[in-house]
Predict the 3D structure of the following.
Amino acid sequence: MAEPTNSKPRVLSGIQPSGNLTIGNYLGALKQWVEVQSDYDCFYCVVDLHAITAEQDPDELRRKTRESAAIYIAAGINPEVSTVFVQSHVPAHSELAWMLTCMAPLGWLNRMTQFKDKSARQAQESIGAGLLNYPSLMAADILLYHAELVPVGDDQRQHLEFTRDLAQRFNHLYGETFTLPSVMTPKAGARVMGLDNPTAKMSKSEESENHAVYLLDDLSRARKKIMRAVTDSHREIRFSDERERAGVNNLLTIYQAVTGESRAAIESHFAGKGYGDLKRDVADCVVATLEPLQGRYNELMNEAGYLDSVLKVGREKAAAIAEDTLKLAQERIGFLAPS
Ligand code: ATP
Ligand code: LTN
């Protein structure tokens, strides 16, 4: 039996170690993870099984997996309070994912925006089946821990709906097994846009130089990228849904997400100022967030054995819970228990 870690409701979330983590990952996901950790029993995983839905260099993947876990902690996740682990260290994720894949209707999978976007960028013939089945694996991650809340960015809302639908389908076919999770997105920063192209989501796998600020960017480089962000030819600094004004809106949103100030207070702060002032203030507040994060990151990467011991404890805690849920699902579906 799994040890009851604590009686608080559970949270689970993850980020793919598919590149360098961006301020989009921080504002959309990590910042919320930190905020909920004292009220929930939190499980935060580095989703390496998801990362291989795109081609990864093996050494680089191993490096990014450790780096991501270290960033979680540097961003404020306390491994004494929350469970930090690597998805592939807990085989139950792959095992439940297969069972869920078998009951996931192709129609649902084909409708997923992330699949449509990512597959549109590749030749049809070469698209890996993992990209299509990605949401079933994500559902397994969440359902294994009976997570009630899943803090993510806006782009993951559809996958959460899918997870709920699939859980309901399983429960209906085989009896109450899984908890239906709710999505949690931040008020500001749920969809940070590219600095060089503010009509596209900031993404860690986009390669252009001034697209994203990475959490481990040299601070002067981070500042430069923000100073070079695409704006427009208007002058007024205010929040706006107009496509034309997406760049300024994005900078204001980053400012709002980092400082926590209200939109009205932010607009009055910038009243009468120019885009240069806006960029400088955004750069200042982003750099003030990155600096201590990078300090903690360097410290813990230099502490021999620390990260690996966190991931070992995390794996044990996660596996105990995941294996129990997997066993229940296997029994419900009719697998013969090994004697
Ligand atoms: P990739 O480009 O490799 O597909 P990504 O940068 O979109 O990755 P994910 O690993 O898919 O990042 O996402 C991890 C978490 O970060 C998710 O909760 C996702 O919603 C959130 N996130 C990613 N990009 C942004 C963004 N631009 N704004 C807000 N949240 C984001
Ligand atoms: N699909 C997510 C990453 C992810 C995840 C999860 C998020 C994998 N498993 C479980 C929350 C819960 C993404 O951001 N692309």
Remarks:
- The chain has a mean pLDDT of 96.
- Residues 15-16, 18-19, 22, 24-25, 27-29, 152-153, 155-156, 190-192, 201-205 surround adenosine-5'-triphosphate (ligand 1) (CB under 6 Å).
